Input
Amino acid sequence: DQQVKQNSPSLSVQEGRISILNCDYTNSMFDYFLWYKKYPAEGPTFLISISSIKDKNEDGRFTVFLNKSAKHLSLHIVPSQPGDSAVYFCAASTSGTYKYIFGTGTRLKVLA
Amino acid sequence: DAGVTQSPTHLIKTRGQQVTLRCSPISGHKSVSWYQQVLGQGPQFIFQYYEKEERGRGNFPDRFSARQFPNYSSELNVNALLLGDSALYLCASSLFAGGLDETQYFGPGTRLLVL
Output
């Protein structure tokens, strides 16, 4: 049972435009959500996170939105840069537990 | 400060062999988690250790085991290797285990190929 889903395996965006990556979850006990970026042959790099008590968190060009009623989160990258080309994973966890549940990833390609 | 380090970076083994992977967490972090990532999938949780005790185990067979040392470094052992164990093995460290809004930071991984 896939509790965290990223339904778009890939996304192409022109440089300078907005990239929107989506993630859906099924477990209502999740209360902490994260986005990681992964380049080939490297481990995932932490990007941004959001607690379930918030609906938005910003860090520079990156903004994560959380819609708890829809069990949906999204990552916005504005403006997109070629260096943002990577695989993006969303992850979810429940406080007091010990593991993250990851989605299958979305490959973002930013075209120059 | 150094991030999470893992060794070796790459490893080739044959079926039936045993392998040990090593991880050093970020300085000050007391918890280490292990994940397996196969091609095309997200990381799958294997173990978490905190203060040398196992805090959680994922849905992996008993061939997988781990331990954490007094300096908080950790080893993951896999016995009787199968072809399906070929994957990227990721170690992540965090300050505590399962705390509120706790972020795990990942190492570069060990790429294991089983022939």
